[in-house]
Amino acid sequence: MSNYRIKGAGRLTPARTARFTFDGKIYTALEGDTVASALLANGVHLMGRSFKYHRPRGVLSAGPEEPNALLDVARDAARRQPNVRASVQEVFDGAIIRSQNRWPTLGFDIGSLNNLLSPFFAAGFYYKTFMWPREAWAKLYEPIIRRAAGLGVAPTETDPDHYANRFAHCDVLVAGAGAAGLTAALSAAKTGAEVILVDERADVGGALLFDTSTMIDGKPGYDWAQGVLAELTAMANVRVLTRTTVFGYYNHNFLGLVERVTDHLPNPNRSLPRERLWQVRAKKVMLATGAIERHMVFANNDRPGIMLASAARLYLNHYGVAVGSRIGVYTAHDSAYEAAIDLKKAGVEIAAIVDCRAKPGEALVSAARNLGIEVLTGYSVIDTAGRLRISSMTVARNGSTNHRKIPVDALLMSGGWTPSVHLFSQSRGKLKFDAENQRFLPNIYAENCVSVGACNGTDELGALLAEAAEAGGGSLSVSGEAAFGWTGGMIGAAEGAGKETTVKAFVDFQHDVTAKDIRLAVREGMHSIEHIKRFTTNGMASDQGKLSNMHGLAIAAEMLGKEIPQVGLTTFRAPYTPVTYGTLIAHSRGDLFDPARKTPLHAELVKAGAEFEDVGNWKRAWYFPRRGEDMHAAVNRECRTAREVAGIFDASTLGKIEVVGPDAAKFLNLLYTNAWDTLKPGKCRYGIMTREDGFVYDDGVVGRLAEDRFHVTTTTGGAPRVLHHMEDYLQTEFPDLKVWLTSTTEQWAVIAVQGPKAREIIAPLVEGLDLSNEAFPHMSVAECTVMGVPARLFRVSFTGEVGFEVNVPADYGAAVWKAIWERGQALGACLYGTETMHVLRAEKGYIIVGQDTDGTVTPDDAGYGWAVSKKKTDFVGIRGLKRPDLMREGRKQLVGLLTADPTEVLEEGGQIVANPNQAKPMTMLGHVTSAYWSENLGRSIAIALVAGGRARMGETVYIPMKDKTIAATVTDMVFFDKEGGRIHG
Amino acid sequence: MRKYSVFALAREAMRSHKGWEPHWVSPEPRPSYDVIIIGGGGHGLGAAYYLAKEHGITNVAVIEKGWLGGGNTGRNTTIIRSNYLYEESMDIYEHSLKLWEGLSQDLNYNVMYSPRGVMMLSHNTHDMQSFKRHINANRLYGIDNEWLTPEQAKKFCPPLDISKTARYPINGAALQKRGGTARHDAVAWGYARGASDRGVHIIQNCEVTGIRRGPNGEVTGVETSRGFIGAKKIGVSAAGHSSVVMQMAGVRVPLTSNPLQALVSEPLKPIFPCVVMSNTVHAYISQSDKGELVIGAGTDQYHSYSQTGGLQIITHTLDAICELFPIFRRVKMMRQWGGITDNTPDRSAIQSVTPVKNLFVNCGWGTGGFKATPGSAHLFAWLIAKGEPHRLAEGLTLDRFRTGRLIDEAAAAAVAH
Amino acid sequence: MLLIHCPYCGDDRSELEFRWAGEAHIARPEVISEISDEDFAEYFFLRDNTKGIAWERWRHIHGCGRFFNAIRDTVSDKFLLTYEAGLPRQPVPGTEPVSAGGAEGGAA
């Protein structure tokens, strides 16, 4: 294995090494290497296979724009990450790295047969075929295509790493810590502004990392950058985040950043998050995101060993790695000369610089020639050779057919530089086209934001530094001197890849989109750049077109005979580079995904052996199985015991709203269908709430504690929206009413005690209140103390038995619960959960809003027409209820159903028909909303919404199931204690 | 139109694909048309296609202010299913699903309809009651939809976490096997090609700025960025911009336009075999043929035409995805985007005559319009051609907001699309 | 994520603290029980859904709890003004005031 590490070159420490494997083979790297630089140091260029044709590919870049070298990087089996860019990932000791999208090996990949079939696989070919026979697409063709596509293999184990999230505010956020970003940050920081400076690399400096010929403030650029970093780091008002990418620029200067905390460490401390999401609100954003070098579009421009010139320069000057031993250069821009010059000076042979321009920058040409480099101006590379690595380039004078083959083992290219306007565009700033330099630049800003440096088209160093210093708002003065000024650049297809050719000149490497694919798209009528993108998939790979978009646009524009701005630019979308889901979710997982709401009695319920169910965000006790009992047995026992003795139930999840003020009754009159002014203090009433549309919105018992004070209860899930709804009307429709609303759901623990012995259980614990039927009848409420604790006691029932609901402050809930349960146990009572609650209420025909009603049910449909006041001249819903369809005959109404076979329990959600023999589609009359086995009745019961239901009493209806049809009789909804005597007992 | 076939493809492969014709032609607009469709998405292009194909009305123009399929057609997560609750909904979505099943052949364009199954996860008793209500209604109508146990759900979708210790454990699922996905761009292009071939004019980059009315209030044409174009009938099919276009004719519609976001992951080898939806935790996911995990997020709360939304909507969606599929935590989001959905108060669509003579509207498909594309287009063409709704779309008229006869899928089931 | 100025708290806060509450200045009819079906549909269902400058309501639900009004450009999502509930429809900053009369002066 040859070593391409050049002694004395680069900034890494030779003594500090790291070992890793690539496709099973062990390699040695230096600490600070990227995977790409380490493999290149070992002479390895072949790092991947393309998406469609499975062509062998080497690393193309030294940054986030990498389309080719996407690898699978693992620490262990569970910490495995597909699609990692070799040019970004730092090597760590012990890394297990594998190539992707190849079988069986990277060197010999069966998938590359696609390359031979490529004439068939032109852009959009799949729209034109695979249609016969009709079922074959999904069964045959699609699975084959899916297997061939994709890149990496998804993780198969749950990620053991954790991630963090931080919110931050700052005066200035600077994205990019190159010469412009550092200057802008320092300038701003010196004014005292709170500054966050962000750079995606491990090291600051940006282009100064490779551009070793630039001097700033009299120092080599890199050294100057390190000095500024030290200065910034020492300032209390500055936070520097390296290895951090600003990935998204959202509304109102809200930015998303991802900080890579441990992925470069060999043995990270497990307490550290793998990555950290920063969500920053900045008063001002300064974009100093630089520019990205473009490749040249020519025949077979994708062989391993072909890469961007600036990348080769970075590998040399930062990592100390030569990307080849005999290197060619193909360029349309001056900057590539400096790569050749640096390499030549480091002792690497430069085969030739091929410059498609007739007259490049004179100073650079001379400098190269003075070093003995052959410079061919007005020439192009028209082809390359080499299977797994480039072996030669074919060069011809522009317009000539004579060509010359030059052996090379690497080829550097530069088509010029594309300003990184991604974040600017994400912020919805408007770009303008700089025709002279063939680039899009920021024009109209949508946020408080400024672009400085190369991303703003400011290339000349002095101007760049001045612009950045001024943007920062300080009086900083920085001077710089570049060895050479750069000019040039081209977009679109180069010589030999023009209109009539059949060569493969790649525009988008990862997706295998060639210049001729773009032209085909235009020929097929795709004239919008968005259509071209979607038809060819140009720019839709994981690099999101950082290299390909401008070329694609230029080729399309040429084909269409239009100027580039007329063809348009596809939208830049977040994220700038891909972001790990784990980072975006940060702490929101497991218990923190959606924290469960638990009642003050939860611990007691757990102790009592409750099984729980999710109701909205709440964990509610479902049933309390005793040893050997399944759910059915437990519920039957609970149902029986509650009616025979008593049951105790945690009702704390009931929504509770305190409605207080001189106009409280008037307000409730407007918000509920019922009348409230007739309710006397000390009494309760069941209330129904509708919205303006007249449909049941919520229900619950409302107790009047005083003339000006109501204790309103809502459904378990309904409290927040009911309060919101009430506040809306109070604040904006009836603002003159003197009423105050307070959510008290969490304030009260609510213990329901229901059953013949309910009074006996609680009486000894209640102080200062006569609980007798005469003094405290059904639907009473009183304030009292329970075990010395201030309490609100309701005489209410959701079971049809004598019932009390003991409300005590949440902190006392557990103590009171224990005391009640102790007495209950002694008297033979049971604890019961939501399932028994459901059965008991269904036996009495009490509805559950949200189960028996669904937002299309009026109070009358539900059988609660009596709860709609006929006297009131206004309430929310009064007009909605009178609309034609709500007054119509034959609406669905809640009724009871009794199955012909009493042991048959209907399925909740079962659909009801009159004629079970009708052909499909059948006419459905309604559906079963509630269905249970009633142990107390010794048979099944059900509640159903049935069209014209109340007029069908005694009729037989049918519930066709998958395997049978069930007959049932329509009845009223009260199945148990029809006279209703027990409740007053 | 040159037919697409394996042979045509082979022939073109031999000559570098130089013989293909444009999918559609973009002629100069005529002074007037029998019908103008405003909106060049799948619904509008499809309506033009069916007007020409089934009603013999070919003097038709589709006017699009941007590029074909650039609205919600090209921005949605391509879920197709028909297992809705109400008969009015089943009517249209099942009609649509049946058209999907033969659409590639009908259009001679592979729209890649892929019935790989749409599975909706149930997490609690309420979900179960609701899903069984759907399943029973669907069965009696004649739509496939079946209940799966958690183990069966896991078998159908192996990455699914069905452990009881999850924050919202799965207690079952409803599966429509005929549900699936299709290639969204291809739907727009296929319809455009078919319509263009039958003489329909496809006019892009042409913004409608006004609707002109005659002495009797009837429509007479549209003012556009390319001048006045006459029309005997106008069909508005402008999705998120329907309110804007309808107001040009002085008609207010019950719509709110909200941002809806979606995202895709980096491409991965096949890992996710079906479509999974969970309304309780708000997650919608499938895997595209390119290997990207396609994930639908929720709507932003406010009304907006910005086609962008907040990061918190995206992160909330991923919270849910990673809760259901913990193995995806190391997967990366590659691209996010937003569309403008047009939402009605009852979350059901509007396809209707309007108070303005010869003006028809097709809107309100909200977050679920893609699946309806062929059915909606087919029935909208009928409405425009006949001047009255097809039997299957009778429930979708504007009049329901006056009478109160809503088709409230959302209220009934808290099911998003 | 939007940044919203609560006119009651006098502070810019994150959207997470707020809930959007629909179009502003749609007053509930004085005698709602008497209006026609058409007028009810108009009041309850029909909305301008404006593209551009829109008047809307928000509630600082996780803050002071107050409903307030806002003027926002629904294309750029920029807020132009927020103001207290009960005030008449405010003019777009920098433009001539519009006359506030009839239903538009309503509190909703």
Looking at this protein, list some descriptive labels.
heterotrimer; B: 417 residues; alpha/beta; 8-stranded mixed sheet; 31% helix; 25% strand; globular; C: 108 residues; mainly beta; Folate-binding fold; 4-stranded antiparallel sheet; two-stranded antiparallel sheet; 6 strands; 7% helix; disordered C terminus
Question: How would you describe this structure to a colleague?
Answer:
- The complex is a heterotrimer of chains A (985), B (417) and C (108).
- Chain A is α+β, with helices and mostly antiparallel strands and 985 residues long.
- In chain A, 21% of the residues lie in helices and 28% in strands.
- Chain A folds into six domains: 17-118, Ubiquitin-like (UB roll), CATH 3.10.20; 164-292 and 419-481, FAD/NAD(P)-binding domain; 294-416, FAD/NAD(P)-binding domain (3-Layer(bba) Sandwich); 506-567, Orthogonal Bundle (Arc Repressor Mutant, subunit A), CATH 1.10.10.1100; 653-805, Gyrase A, domain 2 (2-Layer Sandwich), CATH 3.30.1360.120; 882-984, Aminomethyltransferase beta-barrel domains (Elongation Factor Tu (Ef-tu), domain 3, Beta Barrel).
- In chain A, the strands form 13 sheets. In chain A, strands 8, 9, 12, 13, 14, 15 and 28 form a seven-stranded mixed beta sheet that branches.
- In chain A, helix 4 (179-189) packs parallel to helix 10 (461-472) and helix 7 (335-345) runs parallel beside helix 8 (362-370).
- The longest helix of chain B has 21 residues, at 87-107.
- Chain B contains eleven helices and 18 strands.
- Chain B has 417 residues and is α/β, with parallel strands linked by helices.
- In chain B, the strands form three sheets. In chain B, strands 1, 2, 8, 9, 10, 11, 17 and 18 form an eight-stranded mixed beta sheet that branches. An eight-stranded mixed beta sheet of chain B has the order 5-6-4-13-14-15-12-16.
- The relative contact order of chain B is 0.19.
- Chain C is mainly beta and 108 residues long.
- Chain C has a single domain (3-84), classed as 2-Layer Sandwich (Folate-binding fold).
- In chain C, the strands form two sheets. A four-stranded antiparallel beta sheet of chain C has the order 3-4-5-6, with no helix packed on it. A two-stranded antiparallel sheet of chain C has the order 1-2.
- The radius of gyration of chain C is 15 Å and the shape is globular.
- At the A-B interface, strand 6, helix 3, helix 11, helix 12 and strand 32 of A face helix 1, helix 3, helix 4, helix 6 and strand 12 of B.
